[in-house]
């Protein structure tokens, strides 16, 4: 198995030096030498996750999977890793687009959390809410100092779905997850390191990429087939639960955003963001 | 949502300054200013959990839930937090009362572990067995020094039910729970803090209440609706498992106490307690 | 209950000073004084787990269970605790023997992980892969310095089954298990201690046996019945999952070793072992 996978990996490292999906909101560069892909989120200014960037991300992840990627680094083109879900997709939504948006988020989660290849999040800036989720889907997290990360949904009057919570529980345990979610806590880089939410603190981009590659090098003599099966064994229950619950999860989301009180709250929040930007 | 809940909270803080349930074994005081309830167990001398105190506790918890309590501190009127389940309810029991006692305990668990409002246990003295369980149902635990806490059932020849064990696992993990349960370990305050079974060590009542309020203040800008949903997501599996298993759990309990060997053991234990009190 | 069990324990401590199963690959010695059994794996040179040693182990565990053993120490007659599963059982296997081998491994797991009596692994040397599993089935692990332990299956191009992974998760949590399994990490004794994979580092045999006895002494005043029920409550979900999945697990194993690529990989590995031994 190891041998067949290696052949495929070589084919892949020749595949393409760089590609972008339709809307150019996610850039993928593959090193010919290492076969490692760098996946850069680049929806200005803060990688808010709207339908278009999620669709691009999904397409990129599918191509990486198809081409037996040897490893992927997830990072941002900006000073913010990702500000999380784009709240505009929830405010006065067109129902068909809202459905598509949410199911694309589910797809991205399943592709990233269940990827056959190793993944590292180089968290080069703030990673609240959905930004935190994307980084938690990776197998390893390195992060720059003096930044923030966490599932702070309750601070905005909304709720991180069960699969966000389960993903955090798998990293820092049930006790810390409950405290983090109910208080909507944003951890500083240093706090996140102490609690195990991130694995290393890195000094800038070069250090970040080096530490990511150090993680990938742990697999240099490991059969990709055996590696992936082991990952699926550990993550399988969480992925199966999510997969079985997709329809319910979508309905719960649609039901939530159809409530007047939620729309009112989101409206206030969007107004406050506009005022902030105006000053 | 946040807005609707706030209105209700204001209504609640006007609701009542103090109330007690039928038998006066649980006192509830609600601060007009903060809307925080203090729930004091007061069955002399050590808050042994018999049917009457559990029935009062259940009624108090239902009223707090109905009135959208903003937060509750659970504590004791005595130097012992709670000595746990009253062993007299298990010794030569009248079957109907035993059934009612156990189901009331199940009710109290579901109401306290699943409460919509935040809860802090101010553990102002020893909390063995059922006393430990009550504190573990809260979201946060502060405890006075030089005391003890733990599920020590095996020391008495009895067994903490699966839901006691699951509740402990959710706080300190499976590994530590197995060691604690099989050895019937009572942790000192300091050991409990180190292992994460309690969150803070406090110096007396004023400090305890202050730390509890510091915990509640984390939610001052959080939508109670979103907060509660997040809690239900994290605790949901444990609560659902318990709820589905109530009937089996009751039968297992009744079966256990119907055994001669258990009755004999309880008899010896009650005798030894009487001798202790006599000296 | 406690009383009945004690009577049986006394009967057992008279039972036999020493016995060995059919092929003499596992030696069991029971102390008349303490009632504690020492179970020594003795298939030279490194306790590779082939069908015969597993069959002996299974028989020994059944006898210990039947005779209400008070406690068992699992250790090795050699400088290696156990090198793990015997790879020769997977390489060009005779199908009936392969089936019998795997189901015997499943039996050993269920008997050891679910034993009614307390168990300590005195890990007196390297415990990779299946050797690590056996030690993880025990309730307590003490280990000599400067050795190694871990589920390193992926390093050999194979995969630790789900029940190996679950057993590790129950000790060190999901996050650390994923890292350990995907990288096939062998922990040094010191690293294993730090992460909680072992409980104590001991200086040689005398110290190891002393620490094991110190663990057993925690149960000197505990009802064996209540102790065992508590253990079954904590380990029950993992055991039930394994038990329900035995057939699937066997088929997955047979399917895996029937693949050309796996056979090729195992062939290379066996050749490399032969070369090592030749030099």
Mind explaining what this structure looks like?
Three copies of one chain form a homotrimer. Helix content of chain A is 55%, strand content 15%. Chain A is an alpha/beta fold and 279 residues long. The first copy, chain A, has one domain (2-278): 2-enoyl-CoA Hydratase, Chain A, domain 1. In chain A, a hairpin with a 5-residue loop joins strand 1 (18-20) and strand 2 (26-30). In chain A, helix 2 packs parallel to helix 3 and helix 3 crosses helix 9 (246-257). The radius of gyration of chain A is 18 Å and the shape is globular. Chain A starts with a helix and ends with a helix. The model of chain A is unreliable at 1-16 (pLDDT under 50). The A-C interface holds A 1-4, 118, 139, 170-173, 196, 218-219, 221-223, 225-227, 229-231, 233-236 and C 153-162, 165, 169, 173-175, 177-179, 181-184, 259, 261-262, 264-265.
């Amino acid at each position: 198995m190891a041998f067949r996978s290696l052949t495929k990996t070589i084919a892949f490292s020749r595949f393409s030096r760089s590609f972008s999906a339709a809307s150019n909101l996610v850039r993928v560069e593959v090193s010919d030498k290492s076969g490692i892909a760098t996946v850069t989120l680049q929806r200005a200014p803060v990688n808010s996750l709207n339908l278009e960037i999620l669709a691009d991300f999904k397409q990129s992840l599918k191509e990486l999977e198809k081409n037996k990627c040897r490893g992927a680094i997830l990072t941002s083109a900006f000073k913010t890793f990702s500000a999380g879900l784009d709240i505009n997709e929830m405010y006065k939504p067109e129902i068909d687009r809202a459905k598509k948006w949410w199911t694309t988020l589910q797809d991205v989660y399943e592709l990233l959390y269940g990827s056959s290849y190793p993944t590292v999040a180089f968290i080069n800036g703030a990673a609240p809410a959905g930004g935190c989720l994307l980084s938690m889907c990776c197998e390893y997290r390195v992060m720059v100092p003096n930044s923030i990360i966490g599932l702070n949904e309750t601070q905005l009057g909304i709720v991180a779905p069960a699969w966000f919570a389960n993903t955090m529980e798998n990293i820092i345990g049930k006790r810390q997850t409950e405290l983090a979610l109910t208080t909507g806590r944003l951890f500083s880089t240093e706090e996140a390191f102490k609690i195990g939410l991130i694995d290393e603190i890195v000094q800038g981009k070069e250090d970040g990429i080096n530490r990511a590659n150090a993680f990938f090098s742990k697999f240099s003599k490991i059969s990709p087939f055996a590696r992936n099966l082991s990952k699926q064994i550990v993550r399988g229950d969480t992925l199966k639960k999510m997969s079985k619950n997709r329809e319910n999860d979508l309905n719960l989301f649609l039901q939530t955003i159809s409530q007047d009180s939620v729309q009112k709250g989101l409206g206030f929040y969007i107004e406050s963001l506009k005022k902030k930007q105006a000053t």
